[in-house]
Design a protein that fits this description.
globular; 7 helices; two-stranded antiparallel sheet; 2 domains; Arc Repressor Mutant, subunit A; Chorismate lyase; 6-stranded antiparallel β-sheet
């Protein structure tokens, strides 16, 4: 296992990335036991602290579980921990694929519910809702423009740092987690603003993905409309078992 020279603070992240990729490409299958800490130290030249820190990163991501006295094992459902993979944060999901992701908040303000937004939240048209507009980047290049609507009760979130995981923020501040929902897919053409933010030509074809998400108690949590560049996206759906 080759680990490049790096600063002490980032070496564990590089080791975590290497093991993560080995899990995702099938080198270590579901339920497989990972090499012991001593074996990883001998194989990589890393210190025990670095190895433990790297494994803890994978535990936090839900890819690995540690069993006292037995070692570390690949989980039976890689990529999922408390929530379904569908509700994993964008940053974590991209990290599992070995990509570098970040989010930049373009705007956050109160708006008025209308159309399908009002219908989903079961409120009259014109009811105040939170509107968040964020640009998602993959390896420092724009991937999608995401507009998220939340019920008025989350209004204080407008002043929070929204460049991280929205799900983590909702869970930490409001004790609300995504439970279930559905997606709608359609093709749209880039508006002038979308073209500017995503660095594509105006009227370029984009994929519009709309998420309607309920929390674990069955209450409407958010609607997210994501316009995504088609030249940087791949959609994979499993068939059968």
């Amino acid at each position: 296992m080759e680990i490049r020279n790096a600063s002490t603070s980032s070496l564990y992240l590089e080791l975590a990335s290497t093991i993560r990729n080995q899990i995702l490409n099938g080198t270590y299958s579901q339920g497989a036991k990972l090499p012991s800490e001593s074996e990883l130290m001998a194989d990589t030249g890393c210190s025990r602290s670095t190895v433990r820190h790297a494994l803890n990163v994978l535990v936090d991501e839900g890819l690995v579980v540690k069993e006292r006295g037995r070692g570390a094992f690949v989980t039976g459902n890689p990529g999922a921990k408390d929530d379904d993979l569908s509700f994993m944060s964008f940053t974590k999901m991209m990290a599992l694929r070995g990509a570098r992701a970040k989010t930049r908040t373009a705007d956050a303000h109160m708006a008025r519910a209308a159309g399908s937004i009002a219908t989903f939240f079961d409120v009259p048209a014109g009811t105040p809702v939170v509107k968040l507009i964020r640009v998602r980047y993959l390896d420092d290049k724009p991937l999608c423009l995401e507009t998220t609507y939340l019920p008025e009760e989350f209004s204080e979130i407008i002043d929070a740092d929204l460049d991280g995981s929205l799900y983590d923020l909702l869970k930490a501040r409001y004790r609300r987690s995504a439970g279930h929902g559905h997606k709608e897919f359609e093709v749209c053409l880039a508006t002038q603003n979308e073209a500017f933010l995503l660095d594509v030509a105006r009227n370029a074809p984009l994929m519009l993905i709309t998420d309607y998400v309920y929390d674990t108690e069955g209450a409407p949590l958010h609607v997210s409309k994501r316009v995504q560049r088609t030249d940087r996206a791949k959609y994979i759906e499993p068939i059968g078992r």
